[in-house]
């Protein structure tokens, strides 16, 4: 059987230990910040006010990164994490911070990055919108089944001394942080409501009892591989079990067990994935029971969501996020709105009542198909969606064919806008731009380029993912 993971300092290097470091503040990506002898030290897992001893993992001329060896003193603001897996699974980074301080530091991150990187005149940044629910807020989780459990170093050493290295036929949980082949066995994840944990545990136990082989991520062998659970505010639940090879007898046995044990599952699917990676792109989920999709609702809009559909992970907060976009837009009902990087069309469709026309562009073909189906589902006839890279699609002819935009909404991936698209936006000169970003640093870079013709009028940070360092920021720009 494969050996559990042993973590520690890299071999053949003399570790550099720094003692009694006072953690001063937070930097980007949720890393804590300290200083020693003029050098900036980045530390994960610390809270401003902590005093720590660390071992350096990276040591450059002006900065370094370190891992905490021990706490000499805890910050008074530190709280006890509510999850027993905190610090191991890596899904949450800030459970040791009370939520009001998480919001404070996220607000600070937006302010610092936009002022330091954009270097343009900015209005006062509005107070961050926090979540009403800080647990059970995710509508989607993806679990991994494996034969290689993550075991912390101290526990592993104790097992080794007792000659009790366990064999592992299978576990279910999340990838250990930074490790593709080790899985943290999860008891309770608080990010998604039940029955998510009950379903995962029941599947693990059933496959162990029946000796169905779990997938070995390193050797690319085994059967039970992943599971995706989507839970809608409408009460519908979709479960997609991903398997490493086709075995009709095992599939029928497992799926029948899951459907009987959890009748609240409205759609049950399975997907055969023989690839080495976990991506479902190009694979065909098979419906075992139900319609093969579920319905979700944002405002008065219903969305059809399949096993590969993209949808905002925090449904309730997505409604607040789109509400900010609507408030910033101040639509009068006769505008042509372009929704670039539109995904399944959720932002544009959310605004449908107050616009004359919606034009969406998205590179993922399946997402465009979902957007078209969602428009039809809600009887929205003044929306059109097009597949392709926005840099290639949005040329002069495209704008001429579909009308000059009164408002352009851009919601790019973390890398931000391509410089070619920024050039086209400047050429088009739409009266308003609304830039929704999941990365304030790249957003700030883009704002500095857009400042050639645009001025920033409003900025609104929104927290979509409590207990993590991720943050969304909405910016309204108007033509000078």
Class from helix and strand fractions: alpha/beta
- The end-to-end span amounts to 66 Å
Q: Helical amount among residues, as a percent range? A: 25-40%
In what range is the share of β-strand residues? 25-35%
Strand order of the largest sheet: 9-8-7-10-11-12-13
Pick out its properties.
27% strand, seven-stranded mixed sheet, 11 helices, globular, 25% helix, 22 strands, disordered N terminus, alpha/beta, 480 residues
State the gist of this model:
The chain has 480 residues and is of the alpha/beta class.
Characterization of the model:
- The protein is of the alpha/beta class and 480 residues long.
- Helices cover 25% and strands 27% of the residues.
- It has eleven helices and 22 strands.
- The strands form four sheets. Strands 9-8-7-10-11-12-13 form a seven-stranded mixed beta sheet. Strands 18-17-16-19-20-22-21 form a seven-stranded mixed beta sheet, with helices on both faces. It has a six-stranded mixed beta sheet with strand order 1-5-6-4-3-2, with no helix packed on it.
- β14 and β15 (301-305) form a beta hairpin.
- The radius of gyration is 24 Å and the shape is globular.
- It starts with 16 loop residues before the first strand and ends with a strand.
